Amino acid sequence: MRFNVMRFRWVACVALMFSAAFGALLPHSSLGQEVNFAGSAQGSYLYVPTDSFARDQAFDGFTTELSLKVSADINEYVSVQAKACYACHGFELGLAFIDLRAHDAFSVRVGRFNPSFGEFPLRHDPANHRTVDKPLVYDMGRMLRMPEYNLGIFPAPYVDNGVEVSGLVWFGESVRFDYAAYAVGGFRGPRDAFDIDWVEQRSGALYYVDNNSRPAVGGRMSLAWEFGDSSSVSAGASAMWGTYDPDAELEYLVLGADLAASFGDVNIRAEYLIRRTEMGLTDNPVDRFRFGPNENGVFDDYFLKDGFYVELEAPIYRWVELVARFDGLRRLGNVARTSPLSSRSAVLRYTAGINVVPVSNVRIKIAGEFYDFSDFSDEVGVLGAVAASF
Predict the structure, then answer these.
(1) Which pLDDT tens digit goes with each residue over 212-271?
(2) Is the separation of the CB atoms in 30 and 381 below 8 Å?
(3) For the chain, how big is the Rg over CA atoms in Å?
(4) What are the residue ranges spanned by the domains of the chain?
(5) How far apart are CA 144 and CA 56, in angstroms?
(6) Contacting residues for 244 by C-beta, under 8 A, at least 6 apart
(7) What sign results for the dihedral spanned by CA atoms 314, 316, 321, 323?
(8) Which of 303, 309, 329 is nearest to 152 (CA)?
(9) What is the C-alpha to C-alpha distance for residues 288 and 390, in angstroms, rounded to an integer?
(10) Are 364 and 355 in contact (CB under 8 A)?
């Protein structure tokens, strides 16, 4: 009998959703521990008036994002979470982990989870961020010219198997220090790769296991200051290092820094990410790369990819919100012979939008985006979405 991986994934995710919903309806006395069920969903549409067939450069048209999570506190020291998600990649098991808490300052997470990196992944679910799509550095397929740039720098949500140690420490009543350190399977790609293969990263057909028996390691630290009940400022730094090819020869290093401030209902956020990724030169790089060797007569075996975003969220009426974002993405280094990119390719994007909140936990999002490309014609995108959390 032939094992159908895709069918098994679909059945498993549907079973998780039904069990979570059924468990949430049971009385607590029958459960034996506290069980919570939560979720969010967003249906969105991307229209590109400057391109009559934008599917060649992005996931345009309709997309749906769904997140369903069930969690159980077994006791004060142990909890379990599982999460099913649906998006353009189909059904996925987004989370399945056990938390072991010895103290607020020390806990251990084991299983499948989102390794701690950056500020945006903390709110990557569609109902947890105000924009329709993600910043370019965290893009998962909505950015224009996505195939040429191979997504962003750290596509969110990044889910992996491994172990993470984390904790938080309060200094007085207003200063909080958070930390996390982890070892996970890491990014994936083929032998002699040009870049990380994000399809392989999320493909159950290739199994959700490490492809080179070498874990990636990383961590995050952040410091937050709280001023009263509704104002705060936080700063964080993140890092991740590993190898992504089957022979564990091609290394990558990702670094990030973030800053966020909240003043009542006004939120300002900014992040910068950079990734250094090694490429396979092979025995004949002249036929492999679009550009020749550097001034020393040798081919560079790596490229750099960096980017940033700055976001503003502010209420302009009781049920209307203003959303603005300025972000950019840049790639420096050699490319494949068939790539249309130059050795210094960049894109800047300007986004402005309005969110309408007709009822609690529901948002209607409308936004316009202008793309300024260094290697392509400028483009315009118009997005609309309805998001809800429960």
Answers:
(1) 999 999 999 999 999 888 899 999 999 999 999 999 999 999 999 999 999 999 999 999
(2) no
(3) 22
(4) 5-389
(5) 9
(6) 186, 187, 188, 189, 193, 196, 211, 212, 250, 251, 252, 277
(7) negative
(8) 329
(9) 50
(10) yes
Q: What is the C-alpha separation between 43 and 192, in angstroms, rounded?
A: 38
Q: How far is residue 98 CA from its own chain's centroid?
A: 21
Using alpha carbons only, give the angle 256, 260, 265 rounded to the nearest 5 degrees. 150
Q: Is 5-389 assigned to CATH 2.40.160.10? A: yes
End-to-end CA distance of the chain: 41
290: closest CA among 243, 246, 331? 331
**Structure tokens belonging to residue 308:** 């940033």
The rounded distance, in Å, linking the Cα atoms of 56 and 101 is 47
- Identity of the amino acid at 173: E
Using CA atoms, how far residue 318 sits from 131, 229, 266, 353, in Å, is 18, 20, 13, 16
* b (16+ CB within 10 A) / e for 173-190: eeebebbbbbbbbbbbbe
Q: Using CA atoms of 123, 310, 271, 226 in order, give the dihedral in degrees to the nearest 10.
A: -70
Q: What is the rounded CA–CA span in Å between residue 81 and residue 85?
A: 13
Distance of CA 18 to the CA centre of its chain: 26
What is the per-residue pLDDT across 60-82, written as a single tens digit (0 to 9) for each? 899 999 999 999 999 989 999 99
Q: What would the pLDDT profile of 131-170 be if each residue is shown by its tens digit?
A: 999 999 999 888 999 999 999 999 998 999 999 999 999 9
Contacts of 46 (CB under 8 A, 6+ apart): 54, 58, 59, 60, 61, 63, 133, 142, 381, 382, 383
d(CA 68, CA 75): 23
Longest dimension (CA), the chain: 73
Q: What is the mean pLDDT of residues 5-30?
A: 46
The answer to whether 13 touches 93, Cβ cutoff 8 Å, is yes
* DSSP per-residue codes, 261-310: EEETTEEEEEEEEEEEEE----S-HHHHBSS---TTSS--SEEEEEEEEE
